[in-house]
Amino acid sequence: MDRKLLVQENLRLSDENAKLKLKLDYLEKQAQAHEQQLSSFLKLQHDHYSVLSSTTWRMTASARQTIILLKKIRQRLRAIRHSGALFLSHVERAGLYPTLTKSYQALTSRGLSLLWNHAPPPTVRRNFSLPAPNISANDLFPGEILLISEVSIPQCLKYRVVQKQRMIESLGYNCRYLDWRDHHACLSALQTCSVVIFYRVPAFPDVLLLIEEARRLKVISYWEVDDLIFDPEKYRKNSNLNALSADTIRSLMDGVELYRQAMLACDRAIASTSGLAAAMRDAGVNDVTVIENALDSETLSAADSINAMQARQHDGDTLRIVYGSGTKTHDADFLEAAAAIYSVMERRPNVILRIIGDLTLPTYFDSLAERVERLPFSDYTGYLESLAQCDISIAPLENSTFNDAKSNIKFLEASSVLLPSVCSPRSAFRQAIVHGENGFLANDRQSWEHYLQELIDNAALRREVSQNAHQTILDSYSPEKIAASQVCQVLPRKPTTPTKRVLSANIFFAPRSFGGATVVAEQMSRLIASNSDLEQFVFTSLPPEAVAPYNLARYEAHGVTVLGMGLPDALAASSDFENKATVPVFDAVLKSVAPDLVHLHSIQGLGALLADSCRRAGIPFLVTLHDAWWICGRQFMINNRGQYCGQTTIKTEVCAKCVDNPSLNSYRQQMLASTLKNATALLVPSRFTKNLYVANGFEAEKIHINKNGVLAPAQHYRKHPSKTIRFGYVGGNTPIKGIHLISQAFSAIDRTDYELVVVDNLLNLGSHSFDEHSIKIPGQVKIIPGYNQNSIDEFFSNIDVLLFPTQWKETFGLTIREALVRDVWVISTDAGGTVEDIVDGTNGTIIPLTADERYLKDAIISILNNQERFLNHINPFKNDITLFGAQALELQSFYEQIIDESADD
Hints:
The chain has five domains: 3-116, no CATH class; 137-290, Glycogen Phosphorylase B (Rossmann fold, 3-Layer(aba) Sandwich), CATH 3.40.50.2000; 316-466, Glycogen Phosphorylase B (Rossmann fold, 3-Layer(aba) Sandwich), CATH 3.40.50; 501-705, Rossmann fold (3-Layer(aba) Sandwich), CATH 3.40.50; 725-881, 3-Layer(aba) Sandwich (Rossmann fold), CATH 3.40.50. It is elongated and about 130 Å long. The chain contains 33 helices and 26 strands. It is of the alpha/beta class. α1 packs antiparallel against α14, α14 (331-347) packs across α19 (445-457) and α17 packs across α20 (459-476). The N and C termini lie far apart (92 Å). The strands form four sheets. The protein has an eight-stranded mixed sheet with strand order 15-16-14-13-17-18-19-20, with helices on both faces. Strands 2-1-3-4-5-6 form a six-stranded parallel sheet, with helices on both faces.
């Protein structure tokens, strides 16, 4: 055989052997990478099975059961003690009546296990048990896009994550990316986006939970990848797998299956090439969008600077062929062109091969070692500079289904620095390259040799091809082009006329309807949402058992969208009013919701820093002063001895004797006062509340009365007839509500022609706060369970006079209004906002705010002496009582005025 032919045959055989070896190495490396991801899980699974199947485990079953039982008993005892502490804490914060009401509702729905099991009911225990909202995420957050991504591969992070984020933002959307391993952050971010793209993530349990949560929230989910790593059938048909061990093959297939499961779990998919999109469709994805890699502005700017400096460095007529490898996994690909390159270099002594990154050359290149340059893989700008110093770029890819799905990024990068390229005719290269005009496609050794030789020998051809290639990437592969033609296809359409939005904040909201301020916040949000064009959102807290602390969960209640933030049960004293951990969460909510106005209700625990967030975002905010929380460290102006403190203008030196931390309280007062002074408007439920805050330095012109509404009686409400006067009391067995005055007053009246109906909310909890010995009076005493919004008419239809001898000045007095609107006479102490709807002598009796029972006794005697009048009493001013609907209309007008004025500024 001719010596030349023998050398060529040896080269060919050497190439084939090298290819087979490198294929094996590549597949082994892939398997190892997948095996590392799965190893921890598989080991835990194996260890778990080994333990459960062991003889020791079976023999110790009885002992373990005993230990478990003892642990459960101990845990339940601790939990019951904790329940008592929580109950007292809620009483101090929200009051006895709402605490008892809420406790009753919880016990009737969940039973006595509530005492040792503090987890909420199944509907709120975990995000994934929350019911699916009725409103799609696209209607709520059309401008919010989330990328949940694999971020550990630098090149993928640049081209498929950061680049996509910037392209999405260039189209006017908000976009952020998160590492898929940060489960809680991903889960929280899902609550306020319309589209989520899962890039290159496997179907580990946490990922599947995220995908399921996206489905619950009606968030459109995409699974994206830029490699064919999801098709087990094609992997199985690969004959090279025969050289691998059974364990390695199994691990490799497990990894492929995880990617496939994640892809098929999502609604749609995104591919980087048309070849990859076809493989996705073959795998069962119906809706696939192709979004190609682009050259972002940073790359193009760096390339332009490099081109302007004429970075090519030539030693005489020396020419450089450059190959950017990156990793050794490209060794098999390089073999597609290796023999041709060797032959060209052998014939052209002026040609140098530059390798950037790791690459194992065939041994026959040893004879040309002095003409092989090796550069380490550097930062991106350095990589482009190294490319620009060369003359011809190559991008060989082995002919396989996997490579047919790869992108054309090597062509794009070379073209950016004016290098002509010779590439394998894989799908993405065929799509970008017009052969002979802006590049060359080489399919075998002869074509590789021919086109390399042609470019080496023809400088004019190199310039023409590189210029055409550069224009191609500017015309078709700029971020603007890709964004406008491809990225836009996966983005939701924004409304042309967005609605005005109001975001309310309250510490509790349904299903945790806890406290009077919560009732008001719920009813206002519900009514305004159903009767106006203002779109209502609510920011509230949820227990940490339902949502991880300072993470979000979205649900719907009363027809409005609620964003609940996990809030720890135990907070530092300062966090009650200045909770810094809430700020980033609320900032994100403001950005996603983009409200025109924020309404702060009772925000203890959430903290007043919410107002600072509004101010930084340029959003007007108003505050409803439901109680004295903004000026009193104990919220209700009841001191540490359980008595009304009696202050009008709050003095910190007086408060110092009452609060636990006087210096903290002084700071608290200053901080909260500053917050209120920055508010657009302040709302109060009564004249008394307005006067109280004016007395403490707040502008009267800024404070507006928005009386709390009450539930209207049913259309056919009527009082049940009675022969004797029925007095009612609902304040609980506590001196601050005046129960002792009632006992003393009735005991001093020598009459029995009446009935005293006492509400004991603890009866609903299987306990009691009153018994037959609690109230010893001459007349009949009847103790009944508490009422709710469904049974309120029944309660008031069976009493004629409501006794309200409270011993502190309250800001409103909800029970009084509920009685007045139902034709029930009211006897009340002159206790601030409670008496503002009482016309003394016409629909009620106002007595002095004092611990002297004589005034209450005289009022009761007056009624007993004129029973006929009060048995048939009709309140002539009941139409003046504010109902929820009227309060909502008035509040809506405040909203619209503030929004309009803000828009004019």
